[in-house]
Amino acid sequence: MVSLMNRSIDILENLARESGNVFHLSQRGYVYMTSDRKGVSQFERAARESSQLGAGPLRIHNGEQTTVPYVPSDDRGFGNQPLGIDLILDQDIIRKQFPYLSDHTAALIHARRCGWFSVQQLGMYMLDRARNHGATLIPGRVESVEIVGNRVRTVRVRQDSHLRDIFTPHFVVAAGPMLAEVGKMMGVEFPVISELHLKMSFKDSLGIIPRYAPMLIWSDAIRLSWSQEECELLAESEETKPLLDELPSGVHTRPEGGAESDVVLGLWAYHTPPVKPFFPFSIDPRYPEMVLRGLATMVPNLKRYLDRLPKSFVDGGYYVKTRENRPLIGKLPVGGTYVIAALSGFGVMAACGAGELLAAHVTGSPLPHYAPAFALERYQDPGYQELLATLAESGQL
In this predicted structure, what is the pLDDT of residue 394? Predict the structure, then answer.
């Protein structure tokens, strides 16, 4: 995964340079925080492991004399940030550089070669490039796939009320949450589940999240504070009673837009059971309040919005995941067919590297060393099955 992500970010940076950064690539990093002082050693182990796997050098800031000072995030685009990881244990640095965080923050990891960009702008830029090289976009819905002699021959597409047969020796399944549905057309079963993940955006009119902030991620489980009356109301329903329990870690936020914007994004996958994808999906009306309550654990001043919730916009989509949350990229058992899917949590960050890997499969080009790690065939390996049985975490970002 580290090799794939490094390659994908290389491609993103090259695209940003050649396009004049038309898709607003920013590399402020991801900051993971914990308030568990007993768990700081686990934080350090995680940082060392990521560094050893190729994420870049590890710099530990623990209050002792060091020749490598901590360099704050730079919100001016990309390419001017340190590589690797900063593990900050020095409370003075945390208070100075992140004064808006909870006083209970015991340690943080700043993963530097991370960030965000405009997905829509990148998509349009790459679509224009593809069209300039002769690609044609055909809107429609795949109705069936004809297989002859265990090879793909025809893909039938519905365009409004018309059916169109496309004769092709190559068919790439990139169907996202409809992966299983397309797989059935070819007799291929994919080992994936789908989870509905939401995100919210709201105007931070009080300016609580600085516009220069990186992505902020709380790594501890959370038990929300409710009033006595709220506890009684939540306890009345089996649906809401779990909200009184300890909830998962991972609530996160970041600024959205430029310096002139006041919009903030908030995300928290506090309840994501496997579901069958359908559209349009329903949105939990409690989601904005739950996210704000969770974020207030990390950024206490956000509690100021709880008395009168700001107007928010909620959307989302399905995370398609394998058991270990590693993508599926490569050939399928049916000749001429390929898959690129299950990029849950990595999505657009891994998309360029994943697309390049898929293209190497389709064109018969030399494959990178990490290609077998994403092939569907890995699940036929007894050793890999043993590894899956020992995994303690889902690999979810």
Answer: 61
pLDDT tens-digit readout, 247-267: 999 999 999 998 899 999 999
Spatial CB neighbours of 56, under 8 Å, sequence gap ≥ 6: 83, 84, 85, 112, 113
The structural domains of the chain, with segments of one domain joined by +, span: 120-192+323-390
pTM value > 0.70: yes
- SS3 of the chain: the string is CHHHHHHHHHHHHHHHHHHCCCCCCECCCEEEEECCHHHHHHHHHHHHHHHHHHHCCEEEECCCCCCCCCCCCCCCCCCCCCCCEEEECCHHHHHHHCCCCCCCCCEEEEECCCCECCHHHHHHHHHHHHHHCCCCCCCCEEEEEEEECCEEEEEEEEECCEEEEEECCCEEECCHHHHHHHHHHHCCCCCCEEEEEEEEEEECCCCCCCCCCCEEEECCCECCCCCHHHHHHHHCCCCCHHHHCCECCCCEEEEECCCCCCEEEEECCCCCCECCCCCCCCCCCCHHHHHHHHHHHHCHHHHHHCCCCCCEEEEEEEEEECCCCCCEEEECCCECEEEEECCCCCHHHHHHHHHHHHHHHHHCCCCCCCHHHHCHHHHHCHHHHHHHHHCCCCCCC
* CATH number for the domain formed by residue range(s) 120-192+323-390: 3.50.50.60
Q: C-alpha angle with apex 348: 261 to 140, nearest 5 degrees?
A: 105
